[in-house]
Amino acid sequence: IATDNKPMLYQRGDRYTGFEMELLTLFAKQAGYAFDIEVVPFESIIAGISANKYDMGASSLNITDERKESVDFSDAYSTFETVIVVKDDSEHKGEKTLTDFENATIGVMTGTVDDDFAKERFPNAKREYYNMISVMMVAVERKKIGGYLSESTYVTAAIWEGAKIQSIDEAIDHTQAAYIFQKSEQSAQLREQLNSFIRAAKENG
User: Which alpha helices (H) appear in the chain, and where do they start and end?
Assistant: First the structure.
């Protein structure tokens, strides 16, 4: 797992928590599993799964056709809206649009689909790469970058905690997130068990 994804998956004290972790914990309790958790950089998760180093991975991993070539996804547990995040400016809130970033310096998380979105939507922009959302957030607060791509859920959580940021009203894209697994018969059984749990959770609200 990677743990810089509040409120989806993060570390609080000596435990891991967040929506994604709590969902996985409930599943493990119901199915009788015990997980051995290893924290790694986000960009190492898919590579580790592909190399059969881990049985499954979690960190708000977006479902893409390219990733499906090397890993298997569970059913999606959430849909995210990708937005541009900028320094909070109450006097001019809502005035910026995506066109304002055509030639800007924008931040993206290494190894995420946001990099693809940035290349496609802002081909002339300068991209700065980061390994942690929190570091990227500080960069925009200090105006080292003009903005960064993020899922709106993370933006809302950060604002609740006092971050001086805001998002552009216009969304860049929408994605779905899921857990990932090795492409193996053993993992397929675990994945289907988790899928059944996710479906039941959605039906029960």
Answer: 19-31, 42-50, 65-68, 113-121, 133-141, 152-160, 185-203
